[in-house]
Amino acid sequence: MQQATLEQWRQLYKEADELKKKKPWTIFEDIDLIAVQLEGKREPYFCSIMGRQGNCPGITMYYGMDGYSDLCMIMYSYQYSAPTTYIMGDITCMTCYYGDVSEIEPEQRKLIQDLGLNYQGANDWTYFYSFEPRYVPVTLNRDEVVQCRKIMEVLNKVVDMVMEDQEYLPDFENGELLMAGWDSDQEGEEPSLTIYPLPVPNTLPRFLTIKVEDSVLEEFKGYERTDMELVMDLNYLFTPIDDPDYDRPINPLLVLAYDLKEDFILAGDVLTLDHDEMETVVSIFFHIIEKYGIPKKLYARNPRILIGMEYLCEQLQIEIVNDPLQELDDIYQDIQQTI
Fold it and tell me: Can you give the residue ranges of the DUF6930 domain (predicted)?
């Protein structure tokens, strides 16, 4: 992973700090999307400005339709009970936060010092992270620093234009976003920024229902029915594991099966990067039926499991329950301490 030069970081911090002064979260909600089309990129970056609701101010930037799918998962995560650790561990994006000094890793604190920047107080310290599924968040690499600086430059101009004329704002509440991109029709002219409303795009379903062959289902339908209340969960541990084969520390993803009535862990596995999580969930699910019988209920909080297991549970007449499952939090904490 190539690191950005100090000058590239300086240019990014200049744009990010300029944007911070304008407090764009006083204009935009975090669900008011700004799509930034950069020259040379096939798809736009979908940007969300955080801070209007009193949370940590900042900007999240998601590239293309895959990134837009990640953003939609966050926006609609309230429909499920999945913990923040899973939601934030399963996205790809760049982030700029305006937070407190206590939140900044030593590497970025040194960078701020090397740049000669001086921040004070709450929500003033500028710092950046890159998120990618199966890895812990890390400092931006060189290409990300360059792209993030270009996005920030556009966002600064967008905020200036909107502050000058509110007519630029789209109808966010009725399914529009604000599109921004550079326009240079005449050769030799300086490109100008154009902004205009567009309907928010549709996305393909992020989570799919798992199906198996009818012969397999018929076999499992013959097992004895029990009153077991089975819990199945997927969650990231955010306990970094360094592996020399990868340029980012791995974020362990754990699949857990738990007997709610008996307060007993039935199975647990830390997935490698090659593991497909739902293949593992289904494998453990069928193994539990073989060993204990068909459970009465399946409790889950992770949308990947709640949606993924719909068909199997319907065929096996197992009730699915969407539950916060706070009982699991202590279990994960104990597991984190052993890694």
Answer: 221-335
The contacts of residue 128 (CB under 8 Å, 6+ apart) are 12, 16, 94, 95, 96, 97, 108, 139, 140, 145, 148
Classify 4 as helix, strand or coil: coil
pLDDT band at 335 (very low <50, low <70, confident <90, very high): confident
Ordered by where they begin, the domains of the chain are: 6-199 (no CATH), 214-338 (3.30.420)
- How far apart CA 47 and CA 94 sit, in angstroms, is 10
What Å distances lie between residue 121 and 52, 115, 118, CA to CA?
19, 18, 10
**C-alpha 124: how far from chain center:** 23
Taking CA atoms, 23 is separated from 20, 52, 269, 333, in Å, by 5, 10, 44, 37
End-to-end alpha-carbon separation of the chain, Å? 26
Q: Quick one: average pLDDT of 10-25?
A: 98
Greatest distance between any 2 Cα atoms in the chain: 77
In terms of C-beta density within 10 A (0-12 exposed, 13-18 middle, 19 or more buried), how is residue 34 classed?
Answer: buried
Query: What three-state secondary structure class fits 263?
Result: coil
Residue-wise pLDDT for 179-234, tens only, equals 999 986 656 677 889 999 999 999 888 899 999 999 999 999 999 999 999 999 99
- pLDDT tens-digit readout, 74-127: 988 878 888 999 999 999 999 999 999 999 999 999 999 999 999 998 899 999
192 closest CA partner among 203, 204, 202, 184: 184
Give the H or E element holding residue 119: none
In angstroms, the CA 324 to CA 81 distance is 5
What H or E segment, with its residue span, contains residue 244? none
From CA 89, how far away is CA 192, in angstroms rounded? Answer: 37
Residue 17 burial by CB count (10 A; 0-12/13-18/19+): exposed, middle or buried?
middle
